[in-house]
Design goal:
binds magnesium ion; about 270 residues; binds adenosine-5'-triphosphate; Rossmann fold; alpha/beta; six-stranded mixed β-sheet; four-stranded antiparallel β-sheet; globular
């Protein structure tokens, strides 16, 4: 049984002027336990909308979303969300304090939560940085702390919305390697949004490509069965997968650009 199941999910937003905007329509997807699933699509096609519905931050207008067989009705400790950027770290808490925060809120004893926080701090490669404050950490370090903080709550699943988009190319590559190692070490199920086809191929076991919006759904699913040594941008098999994923997304980029060029009223 799939860990997460979206069946015929639609999301209609009301604009501030009261008009309906059909962001996602009849969207269906199964995410298996242990999958590293990457969602790709043009800007505005509805990726974050899908993540927010799985996270329980947004309600689906129709259709059903289940996790481990239970309908999702709101946020839960079984799902940890890593946002883009570093805004959600508490500036007045140290690296360790930030990782411990959720555990403290849950009433975990000081010694136990400190041990757990140190374990996850080490897992993201930040031993020795426990007493630094966010303002003393680099962008990549802050993003690692965010991931450690989410992992410390031991969710079944990680939901990540373009978590590395703001990082420089070198740090981004490092973070990708780190995340694959964490995924291997913890066996978590990951739902990861990116604009970057390379990033999706390096990381995932499966890629979903969305149609351009409005009323978007999945256009195609690609199983990524590359060996670790083939997850190299210059490897022939990597290039073959890239071509395939690119062919799925290319037309959607053209459609999205064409729609952007039209007056807003003609989008519906
Ligand atoms: N709260 C909202 N109210 C009204 N419209 C919304 C709301 N949130 C998103 N939308 C619209 O729904 C569509 C999908 O938005 P979403 O943020 O899911 O796209 P996305 O694929 O994540 O885009 P990006 O790649 O730029 O992050 C967009 O057209 C957006 O304007
Ligand atoms: Mg988004």
């Amino acid at each position: 049984m799939a860990l997460v199941k979206l069946a015929g999910v639609s999301k209609v937003y009301k604009s501030l002027k009261g008009a309906d905007y059909h962001a996602v329509k009849d969207f269906s997807l199964d995410i298996e336990s242990g999958d590293f699933f990457c969602l790709l699509g043009t800007s505005g096609c509805g990726k974050t909308t899908v993540l927010n519905m799985i996270a329980g931050f947004e309600q689906a207008t129709s259709g059903e979303i289940r996790i481990a067989g239970n309908t999702i009705r709101g946020p839960g400790v079984d799902r940890g969300v890593v946002f883009q950027g570093d805004d959600s770290l508490c500036g007045w808490l140290t690296a360790l304090g930030n990782i411990e925060f959720g555990l403290r809120m849950r009433g975990m004893a000081r010694k136990e939560r400190s041990e757990k926080a140190r374990y996850y701090l080490a897992l993201v490669g930040l031993q020795g940085q426990e007493n630094k404050y966010p303002s003393e950490l680099s962008g990549g370090m802050k993003q690692r702390i965010q991931i450690a903080r989410v992992l410390a709550n031991e969710p079944q699943m990680l939901l990540m919305d373009e978590p590395f988009a703001a990082l420089d190319a070198h740090t981004r590559t490092e973070m990708q390697t780190e995340l694959i190692n964490i995924w291997r070490a913890t066996g978590k199920t990951v739902f990861f949004i990116t604009h970057d086809i390379d990033e999706a191929i390096v990381l995932s076991t499966k890629i979903g490509v969305m149609h351009a919006g409005p009323g978007s759904k999945l256009k195609g699913l690609v199983d990524i069965d590359l060996l670790p040594e083939e997850r190299d941008r210059t490897h022939d098999r990597f290039v073959d997968v890239y071509r395939h994923v690119h062919s799925l997304i290319r037309d959607e980029v053209a459609i999205a650009l064409k729609r952007q060029a039209l007056p807003t009223g003609s989008l519906q």
